[in-house]
Design goal:
By secondary structure, the chain is of the alpha/beta class. It has two domains: about 5-40 and about 285-385, Aspartate Aminotransferase, domain 1 (Alpha-Beta Complex); about 45-280, 3-Layer(aba) Sandwich (Aspartate Aminotransferase, domain 2), CATH 3.40.640.10. About 40% of the residues lie in helices and about 15% in strands. It is built from 13 helices and 14 strands. It has helices spanning about 15-25, 45-55, 70-80, 100-110, 125-130, 155-160, 180-195, 250-265, 270-280, 290-305, 330-340, 370-375, 375-385, and strands spanning about 30, 90-95, 115-120, 135-145, 150, 165-170, 200, 230-235, 245-250, 310, 320-325, 345, 345-350, 360-365. The strands form three sheets. It has an eight-stranded mixed sheet, sandwiched between helices. A four-stranded antiparallel sheet has the order 10-11-14-13, covered by helices on one side. A two-stranded parallel ribbon has the order 1-12. A hairpin with a 2-residue loop joins strand 4 and strand 5. Helix 2 runs antiparallel to helix 9 (about 270-280). The longest helix has 18 residues, at about 290-305. The radius of gyration is 20 Å and the shape is globular.
């Protein structure tokens, strides 16, 4: 029997679908289930990684809070995005990936039973980490429309704030690709000020924005500099998934607590990776703009090919959701048909929020080029023809 802290920790679904797709050993299968990417990291990061392999100082536990160059780069990035000044020596710590930074932060701010505000849908790995830290997810719906996803600000406005100790949000959100506009962020900020709670801003994809949208950082709002904890990652924007480097930037007192958790958790970061990520952040040729252009072209192709299905347009990120309920299907049934009859690996959204998630399958478009995505509409029709 599992210990009680694991009682509500669910599978994410991606691991099952990935293993099933691997077992087919069929190169024709479109791998749309996982958040990998076929776009290379910045050249400066690759070169710095090669240098670090032969650098004995990179093979070290020290410094426990991360290399100075990495902390400086991450702090500078957050300062630019938020228009706030942060001291890298006291207000930053490097983590072994962004999700480790999220978990460390949750462990530092939550008491057992505290509620954490999250969107529905959201990444089940975030939900699991809230639960692992002793928190209780409190969901605010994202409402699907023909023009994309929208935060239900009316529901947010009516939530009683007393038991909410943190809000954990991501824009663009995963798996929806929802992007908060100025009014959404203002509603979130107003709630956090009313609740006097932390706002944990997961910025893993904050610059992967489509249709000329611009980054809005919640710490830029009045009175929010000391309530926002920014958690970033090299995995998405810099395409450096295997480097496992993330960062946490925020007010000094809470960052000191997060650092205590960090040393007690993963202990230290990937030594040979940190200088490479710092180089990527500081590079004039980080490739993010070109990456976004490529992802947008893939999104646009999928939207055209699936125009006779109920697809909710993403405004950023690198995945989208297809509502299969009009076909008389739920996510697991559609996922099984897509793999068996359409040779498409797509993850059902069970456990990725509330009851509405059972209607959706997720399509990730970060790891398959346009040439392979062409014809996806025919595959969908072949797999999901319920007539």
């Amino acid at each position: 029997m599992s210990v009680t802290r694991l009682k509500h920790i669910t599978r994410i679904g991606v691991e099952q679908m990935g293993d099933l797709a691997d077992s087919l050993k069929d190169s024709s299968v479109l791998r749309l289930e996982n958040l990998d990417t076929d776009i290379r990291p910045p050249a400066s990061a690759l070169e710095q990684t090669r240098v670090a392999i032969d650098d004995d100082d990179a093979n070290s536990y020290l410094p426990f809070l991360g290399l100075d160059c990495m902390r400086q780069a991450a702090t500078s990035l957050v300062s630019r995005q938020s228009a706030q000044d942060y001291d890298w020596k006291t207000e930053s710590v490097i983590s072994a990936g962004g999700l480790t930074g999220i978990l460390n932060t949750l462990l530092a701010v939550l008491e057992p039973g505290d509620e954490v505000l999250m969107t529905d849908p959201t990444y089940v790995g975030l939900i699991n980490r809230v639960r692992l830290a002793g928190g209780l997810p409190r969901f605010v719906p994202l409402v699907a429309g023909i023009d994309g996803w929208h935060l239900d600000r009316d529901v947010l406005r009516d939530i009683e704030p007393q038991s909410v100790k943190a809000a954990l949000f991501m824009s663009p959100s995963m798996p929806t690709g929802a992007v908060f506009d100025q009014a959404d962020w203002q509603a979130i900020v107003d709630f956090c000020l009313r609740a006097d709670c932390w706002l944990i801003n997961n910025t893993a994809m904050e610059r992967i924005l489509f249709d000329d949208r611009q980054v809005i950082h919640p710490a830029s709002f009045p009175d929010m500099r000391d309530k926002v904890i920014t958690v970033g990652s090299a995995s998405k924007e810099y395409r450096m998934i295997g480097w496992r480097v993330g960062w946490v930037v925020g007010p000094a007192a809470i960052v000191a607590d997060i650092a205590r958790v960090s040393i007690s958790n993963v202990v230290c970061q990937t030594g040979i990776a940190m200088a490479a990520v710092a180089a990527a952040i500081e590079s004039d040729n980080d490739g993010i703009e070109q990456f976004v252009t490529e992802l947008q072209s893939r999104r646009d192709l999928i939207m055209r090919e699936l125009d006779d299905f109920t697809v909710v347009p993403p405004h950023g990120g690198w995945s989208l959701l297809v509502d299969v309920s009009p076909l008389g299907l739920d996510g697991p049934a559609a996922s099984e048909l897509l793999l068996r009859k359409g040779r498409i690996a797509a993850t059902p959204m069970i456990n990725w929020g509330g009851e509405q998630c059972s209607r959706f399958v997720r399509i990730v478009f970060s790891n398959e080029p346009v040439d392979r995505l062409r014809g996806i509409g025919d595959r969908f029709r072949r797999a999901l023809d319920t007539t």
